[in-house]
Amino acid sequence: MLYTQATIITVNDNRDIIDDGALLIQNDKITAVGKTKALTTQYPNEPVTELEGRIIIPGLINTHMHTAQTLLRGTADDLELVSWLCERIWPLQGNFTTEDGYAAARLSVTEMLKSGTTTFLESMFADRYGFDGLCRAVEESGIRGCLGKIVMDVGTYASDPKWAMHPGLVEDRETSLVGAVSMHEKWDGKADGRIKVWFGARTPGGVSEGLYKEMTAISREKNIPVTMHCAEAPADRTFFASHNHTPISYCESVNLLGLSTVLVHMVHLDDSDIAKLAETGTHVVHCPSSNTKLASGICKVPELLAAGVNVTLGTDGAPCNNTCDMLQEQRLAGILHKVSTMDPTSVPAQTVMELATINGAKALGLADSIGSLEVGKKADFVVLDMRAPHLQPWHNPVSAVVYTATGRDVELVLVDGKEVVRDGKLMTMDEEAVWKEAARRSKEVVARAGLTKQVGARWPVR
């Protein structure tokens, strides 16, 4: 199939933008990229999809996502992190069933695909949610998923015993670490290679040092990557100090640093932490919406990038963002650091596009196959329909995508050369059935947790 007459943002090594461009897709690969006239002349018998007035970008890569939490959208608004976790999210998640987990995963991947995310990294899917269901949702939907199975053995947050997890979420070594290895053996490489199984370690304070070291040893032995929250809130910084460490010196002490580790949030860092991240090639995920909504702080993205750290972009979960839309996340990433540094040139649109595409691919170890539109790479791309008043006029296509477009402007999405979204509609699952089941199950979870009144409207409803 030839996709023609579009503006193509390739994010290749030269960062080429092709006006009146075309992509030739054969099976699951991109086999030609160039001008429309040249490709239609060279391949006269190929069927054509004309995309005049559209912009094509590489599939967006969301490197931090809690798929279970999409079922809890809007249940914990306007709370700081510890209250958000201990009083709302953990009690709600502790009342999940495996059926709820499957419904949440289906809702998450539906929203992500429809808003242009073609690959995501699940942070730490708990055993009680049903990891098999998450994998089935990825398999059925057509999305590409790196799926972190939770690893933990301590049921508190940071160093305060008052910040305890709901009993329904607490796992031990056998359930979490051994279970993750079992899921890796069962699911890694399935769905035509679209599923990768990761370790999703809990934040330091939620994992004993012995279990961290066992996990990182297995990670190296079996080539299982690791993702973990780190240095998100001031309470995390207090925990590290209580162990006579900075965030990254602690991570180094339990062998967490390296090319196969993706650390999330990374707000409260020292200069020495940034230098060590760069030295070890450890990847960082920036989650601006979550960090601002929970008042956790602002990640030092300009400093991290200047030091040579690979920084990527993630939405985090729906209760601390309210959307899984990576296009909206790009916009905040592009404007937040301008005010935090008082420098409007800080983190420009081009850098944001890299965070959301090729940098994410590097973090996932997939840069040879996704993250840019180049011959030989997987046919993962997104078409944005720019023929609308709220998107016109535009002059710089990268700026238009980063600062103006949202997920509602996504017209077409391909993963592995298959059209999974067409005309803005999901082609692989029944959208209406997905959201209706999720809405019903969300109310049931809230009721089981005894939080119906707490999550409702604060103004009188008549």
UniProtKB/TrEMBL annotation:
Protein name: Amidohydrolase-related domain-containing protein
InterPro entries for this protein: Amidohydro-rel, Metal-dep_hydrolase_composite, Metal_Hydrolase, MTA/SAH_deaminase
Domain annotation Amidohydrolase-related: ranges: 55-420
Signal sequence, start to end: none
Biological classification of the source: Eukaryota, Fungi, Dikarya, Ascomycota, Pezizomycotina
Pfam families the record matches: Amidohydro_1 (PF01979)
Keyword flag Translocase: no
GO molecular function, one term: metal ion binding
Source species, domain of life: Eukaryota
Keywords, sorted A to Z: Hydrolase, Metal-binding, Zinc
